[in-house]
Amino acid sequence: MLSLLCLCFVGLLFSVAKSTTIATQPTTQPTTKEYKKALPVIHPENKAYWDSLKGHELKMQKCQDCGTVRWPVSPVCWKCFSGKYEWAKLSGKGKVSSWIIVAQATGNPAWSEDVPFNVVLVDLQEGPRVTSNVVQCKNEDVHTGMLVEAVF
Questions:
Q1: Rounded-to-integer distance, Cα 71 and Cα 85, Å
Q2: Tens digit of each residue's pLDDT, the chain (152 residues)
Q3: What SS3 state is found at 101?
Q4: Alpha-carbon distance 52 to 67, whole Å?
Q5: Could you give the CA distance from residue 51 to residue 67 in angstroms, rounded to a whole number?
Q6: Rounded Cα–Cα distance for residues 82 and 62 (Å)
Q7: What is the DSSP string of 2-68?
Q8: Contact at 8 Å (CB) between 93 and 36?
Q9: Is 110 helix (H, G, I), strand (E, B) or coil?
């Protein structure tokens, strides 16, 4: 399975649904390298989302009145304007709807170690669209319509 790695936009990993997931070996070596890339701002409204990722699940807000799953987080449903929602566990499955290859790091020099890398839009089965990266596959293998699923 191919995987998606978030730049910071969503915090997710994904993997393509038609082959076996490639497991990565966790390192036991302590890391001393300073992390220089931007980190997400966690606040009370999005904390449940980030906590779900730490727990190896994907949860997003789901309207309790109309059932719309929404991302990014919002105090009201964009479809029916209800303020009632729950944090629903999602399948994490989706499809690449668009992609690009970043060949030159601009802005934060911390990205220069990663170029070239891909940035993809993934339409989740439940509705929301998220921004991420495909990992565990060559950039030239990324394509529109690629089926993916979240891995952690």
A1: 12
A2: 444 444 334 567 666 665 433 333 344 555 567 888 888 899 999 999 999 999 999 999 999 999 999 999 999 999 999 999 999 999 999 999 999 999 998 888 888 889 999 999 999 999 999 998 888 889 999 999 999 888 77
A3: strand
A4: 20
A5: 22
A6: 11
A7: -EEE-SSSS--EEEETTS---PPPPP-SPP-SPP-S--PPP-TTTHHHHHHHHTT--EEEEETTT--
A8: no
A9: helix
Q: What is the dihedral of CA 122, 110, 21, 2, to 10 degrees?
A: 40
CA distance 52 to 58: 6
C-alpha closest to that of 90 among 121, 129, 41, 134:
129
Pairwise CA distance, residues 146 & 143, whole Å: 6
What is d(CA 39, CA 126) in angstroms, rounded to the nearest whole number? 26
Asked whether 49 and 130 are in contact (CB, 8 A), the reply is: no
Report the amino acid identity of residue 91. S
